[in-house]
């Protein structure tokens, strides 16, 4: 039984890294910008900044169910950003983003570590299914989106783009 519990805890953690050819302070400022989180996590959740330290999150899960939580920045330093959820979160989580100089003066390495702690019971089982499937993919996609935003100023999408043609379809 202890082994299953340990495996479940590991399944609820995700780590990913990316190198971006920009200075750490510039990337930290972009990460902390009020609209960045809503843009980079759009594939996973709706994020609404309440102020410069707090945000509300709504993730859409199986069966159309919504999971809500509020995060607060715990610490911001030159080399890290740390956050966690407030009490009462449907999905308690905590994260740490580290900024390190990339070898060969190639910019900055970002190391993102996010830990999810789903609740118990039926809600916890549904949340576990939501996060068990792709916790690392969620984090990787968020970092990919952040890198694209930092390098190009936008996040690529395959969503249909209106082309001012009939029905907005590009034919």
Textual characterization of the structure:
The protein is of the alpha+beta class. Helix content is about 30%, strand content about 35%. It has five helices and seven strands, in the order αβααββββββαα. It has a seven-stranded antiparallel β-sheet.
Low-confidence stretches: 1-11
Please give the largest β-sheet: 7 strands, antiparallel
The CA-CA distance between the termini, in Å, is 57 Å
- Percent helix among the residues? 25-40%
Principal-axis shape = globular
- Widest sheet, order of strands: 1-7-6-5-4-3-2
Quick structural overview:
This protein has 171 residues and is of the alpha+beta class.
Lay out the secondary structure:
Layout: H1 2-11, E1 13-20, H2 24-32, H3 36-40, E2 45-49, E3 54-60, E4 66-76, E5 80-85, E6 92-101, E7 108-117, H4 121-133, H5 135-152
Antiparallel strand pairs: 1-7, 2-3, 3-4, 4-5, 5-6, 6-7
Overview features:
171 residues, alpha+beta, seven-stranded antiparallel β-sheet, 5 helices, 7 strands, 33% strand, globular, disordered N terminus
